Amino acid sequence: MRTAILDHAIDLLVTEGAAALTMRRIASGIGASTKVLYTMFGGKEGLVDALYREGFARLRRAQQRAHRAEDPLTRLNDLAAAYRAHALAEPAYYRVMFEQAVPGYQPSAEALDAAESAFDASVEAVQACIDSGVFAPGDAREISKLLWAAAHGAVSLEIAGHFPPETAARRFHTLTAAVGQAFLADEHGQGRTS
Amino acid sequence: MRTAILDHAIDLLVTEGAAALTMRRIASGIGASTKVLYTMFGGKEGLVDALYREGFARLRRAQQRAHRAEDPLTRLNDLAAAYRAHALAEPAYYRVMFEQAVPGYQPSAEALDAAESAFDASVEAVQACIDSGVFAPGDAREISKLLWAAAHGAVSLEIAGHFPPETAARRFHTLTAAVGQAFLADEHGQGRTS
DNA sequence: AAAATTGGGTAACAGCGTTACCTCCGAGTT
DNA sequence: AACTCGGAGGTAACGCTGTTACCCAATTTT
């Protein structure tokens, strides 16, 4: 039952966007009354919270699927590409997760913690880059977050319409590569990022 | 009259957030009926469009105010810092501009064009870095957009709650510095970003 | 078997964006 | 100067939203 509600909510979100995500439509879509949603999720906020977590769970699975290549730097690149592909595949989900597409919702601390686990694969890949000497020693978690911010910035501007489609992919790659480059092992004497 | 409406709408947006930005509240706040808003702006979308443009106009002014330092690289850093400061000073505005805090609104092509002018100062600063030999030759507009994406990503994650306050400033600086570093003139033989 | 508790449907409330209707004020015409 | 006419603005309604008080049926407990 709970999964039926979530499935239909996700379907509405993906096919018609966040504006169509109303309690009445979800309820009528599963042939029930809105009361069920309130006993089950406590309100729209609880339902959106479930969608938020589901969105990051999907992102985590997408990242794990991309976590295959041998070379650690290639793996990191693949993860970044998978991040963008996942975001663009379901922009409505991305908006729920990062921009608050549902007006009132603010993720709780637990939800934010759960979201963080979506980037475990990225942290591992960065750590592998450090361990193999490709990256200089450093905090893998911190570097991963910076890569995330760069990727998120590029994707977010793309979804918002500021990056035209034909250049968005190139910019995404250039930006993530530029950030990655800053953490390369110091083989050439270039400056270190503070 | 038009400015009175916008002033009150901005006031509502800044002090109570996007959720309080309703046609009825704006109208009653200026002691008029909602009909005025519709004859003047054509609907909520037109009003939010005006707020969107105003937000980028304010950002542009904030960038111009920060555009003072002599050293081009310092100037670019100042612009980045001003960008973050401006975004954090009025997060509700930032949400209207980048995340679509008002459910239905999607900026028109003209609005996106107008938004772009907010980054003229950044493009100029990048061009100055190239002209003075600090940056390698390249497309200043393109580099500026990448810096923008990085800054936006860090600020956006900060506002969304993913970056705790005490580390957000450091991460913002590290990230923008890392991106800037990738475009430095090739004095040390480090690899070039493709 | 009777009683208590729980889950779900109905219908209502307040508030939202929007608009049809009407009034009324000011400008242009005769 | 009076009269008409056009458009700006207020009133009130429509259909929608999230939410909940009320009620009934069904299930579980004693």
Structure, explained:
The structure is a homodimer. With about 190 residues, chain A is mainly α. Chain A is built from ten helices and no strands. Chain A has helices at about 1-15, 25-30, 35-40, 45-65, 70-90, 90-95, 110-115, 120-130, 140-160, 165-180. Chain A starts with a helix and ends in a 13-residue tail after the last helix. Chains A and B meet through helix 7, helix 9 and helix 10 of A and helix 7, helix 9 and helix 10 of B. The first copy, chain A, binds a DNA duplex (30 and 30 nucleotides) through helix 3.
| Cα end-to-end separation of chain A | 52 Å
Chains forming the largest contact: A-B, 47 and 47 residues
Strand percentage of chain A, roughly?
under 5%
Quaternary assembly:
homodimer
For this structure, the CATH topology of the largest domain in chain A is: Tetracycline Repressor, domain 2
Regions with little confidence, pLDDT below 50 for 5+ residues of chain A: none
The top-level CATH class of the largest domain in chain A is Mainly Alpha
Please outline the major beta sheet of chain A: none
SSE run of chain A: HHHHHHHHHH
Give Rg of chain A in angstroms.
19 Å
Class from helix and strand fractions of chain A: mainly alpha
List the helices and strands and how they pair.
The structure is a homodimer of 194-residue chains.
Chain A: H1 2-16, H2 23-29, H3 34-41, H4 44-65, H5 72-89, H6 91-97, H7 109-116, H8 120-131, H9 140-160, H10 165-181
Helix pairs in contact in A: 1-2, 2-3, 4-5, 4-6, 4-7, 5-8, 5-9, 5-10, 8-9, 9-10
The first copy, chain A, binds a DNA duplex (30 and 30 nucleotides) through residues 22-24, 32-36, 38-39, 43-44.
